[in-house]
Amino acid sequence: MMRRVGILGGMGPQATILIMQKILDATRVRDDADHIPLIVDQNPQVPSRIRHLIDGTGADPGPVLADMARRLVAAGAEALAMPCNTAHHYAPAIRAAVDVPLLNMVDLAVARAAALAGPGSPVGILASPAVRKVGLFDAALSQRGLRAVYAPDEAAMLAAIRQIKADGPRPEARRALRAASAALAAQGATVQMIACTEFSLIAEAVDKTAATFDSMDCIVQAIVTFARKSPNKGANGHRAPAPKLAKRRSNPTMEERR
Amino acid sequence: MMRRVGILGGMGPQATILIMQKILDATRVRDDADHIPLIVDQNPQVPSRIRHLIDGTGADPGPVLADMARRLVAAGAEALAMPCNTAHHYAPAIRAAVDVPLLNMVDLAVARAAALAGPGSPVGILASPAVRKVGLFDAALSQRGLRAVYAPDEAAMLAAIRQIKADGPRPEARRALRAASAALAAQGATVQMIACTEFSLIAEAVDKTAATFDSMDCIVQAIVTFARKSPNKGANGHRAPAPKLAKRRSNPTMEERR
After folding, report:
1. Cβ atoms A24, A35 nearer than 8 A
2. Which chain B residues are within 8 Å of A17, Cβ to Cβ?
3. Among B151, B165, B150, B153, which Cα is nearest to B50's?
4. Which of A21, A80, A181, B54 is found 20 to 30 A from B195 (Cα to Cα)?
């Protein structure tokens, strides 16, 4: 029996579909029943993180995310995951609302970065300017002796995110992501993370000189592992076999060393 | 403010992802917030419809579907939809469990067939053999002066569905669907419906001599229309603009006459 994971989704809705596809692709099956059960709140009406954190206008998404978390748990979720990096700024509101674990994309991505990058290395963050502004990854990276470096052209990153949200990725969004990762590589960031689920939709566009991974793939792996770990076996129980990585739509630049 | 639709999903999980993509593609947007809110129970553990209806073994999916419906309504769904044709055999159990409407794929597909086919015409049904066995479409088609005709090689259809569920569509599944639609066309079925959401994943494979539509597209349209109709406006309120049809992954053989 597998455990059901609740997805705080809709940020954006295309990224939520992508994570569902990656979870499906990560599961070898013989029939439907071998796939992982999810309950997905595809809620595109969560107040804009960009408006709240960058523009300084608009409603606080925290209470809406807390409500979504409560509803997902009421609907049977035994853990939660949120395919939106920026929204992890509101993780404390979610954790305060429910008793089930939040599989934390920030913690998982920082652990992956630490496995890839040498001590003291800069880690390139391909994200919304809001992520730099709130320092979403900085403290966790710093605790592991790493430091975050951000793409210099923040206006271009924000424009690319808005363009993808409006009508799906166009070539100019891919060009902006490639330019940002090239600029980070030029600054010495040989390890980079895609830390915006809109960029997960165009992960193949990154500059190929750095080892780049996608924080979404970290959370996919955590969801599969959680779902397969029988609650009766407990924390020390038999470890589920490592999930096969996404066979379709995978980021070809992702460096897997696990 | 849009109304939230609950999706009884996981039958199969890839078809649930496809309907979410079609709903997204049917919505012109400027930002996330213009998209339709969904709550999706991606439950691949619903007892097999094939085992219950064809093999005569295995659990009744009805009570599980009723439970899912209750949970979705508790999580905020104001209507339900189920991207699995065969599972509509259990629609009475769902309707008995909740007070919100079930946007019924069978009724919607039959209405579409009646708009396309002349009186007395045969309508080709590309579906699981379970659909013929339980006569899922027969009574509703007959009420509109139409009659259902089924693909003769039922073993090939069932094998194709099982293959798609196991590891995604392979060429032999596409060949089986094409052969079935060609056989139905040879029997005079100039109008045909894809009535299995596994076949929705390979809708482009149908024989091109008939006008073929996908029952999944009927329900996508109903979901978009329901979500956009403000509850305050009521049944006689302002009609939402007709949704743009799926721009990606659309079935190129679909004949739209609305």
Report:
1. yes
2. 17, 20-21, 24
3. B165
4. A21
Q: What percent of chain B has pLDDT over 90?
A: 78
- The answer to whether A167 contacts B29, with C-beta atoms less than 8 Å apart, is yes
Cβ atoms of B146 and B121 within 8 Å: the answer is: yes
Q: Which of A14, A24, A44 sits opposite B13 (nearest CB)?
A: A24
In Å, how far from its chain's centre is CA B176?
19
Regions of chain A where pLDDT drops below 50: 233-258
Q: Inform me whether the C-beta atom of residue A242 falls under 8 Å from chain B C-beta atoms.
A: no
Burial status of residue B17 (CB atoms within 10 A of its CB: 0-12, 13-18, 19 or more): buried
Instruction: Tell me if chain B has a CB within 8 Å of the CB of A20.
Output: yes
Q: What ipTM goes with this model?
A: 0.87
Residue B248: pLDDT band (50, 70, 90) is very low
φ, ψ for residue B252, nearest 5 deg: -70, -15
Structural domains of chain B ordered from first start: 5-104+216-235 (3.40.50.1860), 106-215+252-257 (3.40.50.1860)
Reported as a single tens digit per residue, the pLDDT across B177-194 is: 999 999 999 999 999 999
pLDDT attached to residue A232: 55
Query: Which are the contacts of B184, defined by CB distance < 8 A and separation ≥ 6?
Result: B124, B126, B149, B150, B151, B192, B210
- Say what the pLDDT of residue B231 is: 64
User: Which chain B residues have a beta carbon less than 8 Å from that of A31?
Assistant: 48, 162, 165-166
Partner A contacted by B161 (CB < 8 A):
no
